[in-house]
User: Fold FAD-binding oxidoreductase from Nitrosomonas supralitoralis.
Amino acid sequence: MLPVNLITELQQAFPSDRFYTDPVDCYSYAYDNSRKIFPPDAVLFPLTTQEVCHIISLCNRYHVPIIPRGRGTGTAGGSLPEFGGIALSMERMLNIISVDPANRVIVAEPGVLNQTVQDAAKPHGFFWPPDPSSAHFSSIGGNIATSAGGPHAVKYGTTREHVLGLKAVTGTGDLITTGCYTTKGVVGYDLTRLLIGSEGTLAVITEATLKLTALPVTVTGITAHFSDLSSCTKAIVNVMALPQLPSALEFLDAGSLNLIRGRYPDMLPLNTHAMLMIEVDGFSEDITSSIAATLDACHTDGLIHAQQANDTTALWQARKALSPLLKEIAPKKINEDVVVPVDTLPQFLKGLTSLSAHYNLHNVNFGHAGNGNIHVNLLINPDDVEEVARAERCLDEIFDLVIKLRGTLSGEHGIGSEKRAFVSKEIDSVTLNLMRNIKKLFDPNDILNPGKLFPP
Amino acid sequence: MLPVNLITELQQAFPSDRFYTDPVDCYSYAYDNSRKIFPPDAVLFPLTTQEVCHIISLCNRYHVPIIPRGRGTGTAGGSLPEFGGIALSMERMLNIISVDPANRVIVAEPGVLNQTVQDAAKPHGFFWPPDPSSAHFSSIGGNIATSAGGPHAVKYGTTREHVLGLKAVTGTGDLITTGCYTTKGVVGYDLTRLLIGSEGTLAVITEATLKLTALPVTVTGITAHFSDLSSCTKAIVNVMALPQLPSALEFLDAGSLNLIRGRYPDMLPLNTHAMLMIEVDGFSEDITSSIAATLDACHTDGLIHAQQANDTTALWQARKALSPLLKEIAPKKINEDVVVPVDTLPQFLKGLTSLSAHYNLHNVNFGHAGNGNIHVNLLINPDDVEEVARAERCLDEIFDLVIKLRGTLSGEHGIGSEKRAFVSKEIDSVTLNLMRNIKKLFDPNDILNPGKLFPP
Assistant:
């Protein structure tokens, strides 16, 4: 329950259509793509940086949690109001402040959708590389808070590499301005990157200076079918050893392919047990040599066939077919997005197979193999207590394997609430303690997204 | 003067060839490329991370300044022991811990030279993009501490984009491990980037995981001569508007060209008043279309001629000729490395011309125009008090112009001691205060490179 005085002050400052307190209205802000539910006590929709400063100052005075929120597409529970408080929905800060093609920069408010940025950049021959699968729906504020990536990160990097500067409001309601407007700049500490991926625990982003990238002139696809997993992982390593990085290198394992076959029986050859979808792009109209080299890199023992798919729709057909199926099984899966060094993928995927066999679990693995970023899905019946317990033990071993291989527990989804129990597997206590102290510095009363990102 | 007990403890822990206290020995660690002189009270040469922890713990106990130092090539005075204390020379931590071409990673100690990393990467078809002009001599520790850039940053970015993780020791002697070994990773706060460019004020880097980039297959050069500055700056804007970024886009103004003519009368056509040296690279052997587009972009009114220089030695001839001349006039120049948005370069360079005329100063401007990163050199007689005063007033106005154009005070040299008086022009007091508090968190007794980076 919010303090009455705080409610009164907020009611004075915000019209009722920008300050929800009715539980029915608030309920839409109780969940995200983690499928957990924690209703906020209120929802606020700021329109300006000044309003965000005012809200946070007030909440800081009353020690009330503020849970900043983009469009709620995160899978790690980062926007869940676990301890109640106010959901700070940035969805109405929708202005693109400037489009500056000469300097390859767009300045935008956090509620602007990723897709809107792409639409603003495209007429000038540019795009903004972060491409989470939610790009048409998710906002740049959320993308920045999680350092979102996607299939094209293998060539273009993640959000971290594509933001020049930020305006943000700390847990004391103070406005800070980080970074610069130019591609080079070394004045002061890099607070921009410190905020990127901090999941709203340090400050609320109210403006972002985005660095644009030129759209490639030519894009083509390659699909490669393999009779066995090991040949496929070898091909991944081969492709990543080529000088020119592919612009996407997506992997589907046998479990994923079987899931697709269940719905679309004729889409995939029966003998395909692992598959790659590769995109190659370039500034030259002639990328023949890149295509030839990539096709060649796919020629491992178990290759059934690899072919160019100029129609990128055809390229992504299998991956797109998988999406709704994954949504259908959504409540029945544990979804992780671990990363391992590319050359350990064969060992990692083999390890996954043994672990799922050992724990008698079904799993479906796919993802951004070019970054070694694999989405591991354990398919479980959430009502089967014994199976859930087995899945948890399996997950624990999967994470240990990831760390053993010098990988990381999350490549793009973040920690949020879902993965915080495992953070200490990756980050030592001294470093973690320093991070906690940084959190305290930005947010002394722990009101910004409390409980997230750190182990309990 | 160092506390006697500290000296005793250090003498017990380090042999005399790794602990200098004789002022004559220490003097070599009193200066860097800023041409200021501040002798340390002692110099230590750690060989391991553990030793660095031990040294910093001790100094923290005695509140003695530690000035971490790579190879002393910085121009901003970042490695000067202004308040005495111990120069911590990392130059003997020289191990390349691993070269991992399959994952495009080299792990190295901070004393390893940039050139040594290039030599280790090259046989595998890779390079490490940061390329300060000191690359053959400077160390990766120093490169990371300053987020070094160079001519190729226009396409490949600066150090910030090419480090995956770090080991570092804070001002309390605690070892922290930041980042990860993979190209994606979002677990915890991005302390890697926080340390990059922090000029040894937060922690001493003892190990770095460097991300490698594939060497281009084809590299070619273009030189373009212009009859006037304005046509040249227009060409810069045109080149930067092309989809494919040049791999270098270096600019020399009339002052620079005249300096070269004074020594090499026949090197440059007399009617050239501004010049561009452009490098174009690619993975295809055929980069004809990029070259044609770049040549075309140079076609402004005042273009005298633009031509391809396949021999990159020829390309850099004028720039290389400038270097020793700049060294000769070194004590008589104030060298800045400001950055402005690329499309404001015409306005900025025009502004520079008026300012130097107004203050009756000679200046020489050149640099990494593709990033808008211009090295502004005011040529002054350091013994002429009145001229020095004029130069200081001029510099102040130059910085104001930079900020007005949304630029930044330093693109690659950093703040160190040289530019700290101006930091408040760029960073507001709230943000600066937060940075000061971060410094306090990492280094509560202000022993790590005290006085640097922040305004006095």
Remarks:
- Chain B touches chain A through 94 residues (CB under 8 Å).
- Chain B has a mean pLDDT of 95.
